[in-house]
Amino acid sequence: MATLREIKRRITGVKSTEQITKAMKMVAAARLRRAQENIINARPYARKIAEVLGHLLEIEKGVENPILEKREVNKIALVVVTSDRGLCGGFNMNVIRKTEELLVEEYAEWTNKDNVELYCVGKKGYDHFKNTDFKIADSFPGIFSKLDFTFAAKLVKNLTSKYIAGEYDKVVVVFNEFKSIIQQNLVTKQFLPLEPEKLAGEEIQELSSEYIYEPDKVSIINALIPKNLNSQMWRVLLESYAAELGARMTAMDMATENAKELIKSLQLTFNKERQAAITKEILEIVSGANALKKS
Length: 295
Description:
Layout: H1 4-59, E1 76-81, H2 91-106, H3 108-112, E2 116-121, H4 123-129, E3 135-140, H5 149-164, E4 170-180, E5 183-192, H6 196-199, H7 217-294
Parallel strand pairs: 1-2, 1-4, 2-3
Antiparallel strand pairs: 4-5
């Protein structure tokens, strides 16, 4: 049985933990508001540029662009987007498990030939996969502390240049998409090659009128493709960051509530033990007094 001093020490420790988790929840909530604004602003642009590109590709058949070229898959690049910090529930492990599932099951043929390379965006993904036998091509820790569009553009440029050069035949992104504070959607998305039927979303609307394009459709398509890739990667990073903050806010809220429940339980135990100690002392005093009377 724990002594009163040990119980009191434990109550003090849990109270300190409660203060930390409560503070982390408040910080995550403050950052989440801005992250939500960023993702709300980014979604319409990313969606619309994909729709425009999808419409043009539906109209103009047979456009020759290396980014649209499908070829036999011999080597795959997996972009794994996790967070830089922990304490966000199952946010990181969901992405890591999904990546391992792809490596071991769906892409096992290429993994066994050492033809799958990982691009770890976020420290947690890199910390996990560096201790495995899977091949890491590059890692980008610490980018979410100062998330910037230029990083997305550089990453896209690196991936597209290697895809065009034939170093990769397929590029896939695994990330958490922000849905709400308490829910994230785990998404596995083909990034390269671009598939026209997927550019406009679930349904590609048919053009009701024939438009005149200047200079011409093919030139516009070639100009929109890199813009679309940049916007889609930027959206992936924003989605992941907002989902991370939502997951951390939820995890810290649950941790705070658990700490409160534990404090109540420990306080009850402390009161019982203290009452038992007082009762014992009273009994000892009464017993001693009775003994003196008899003597």
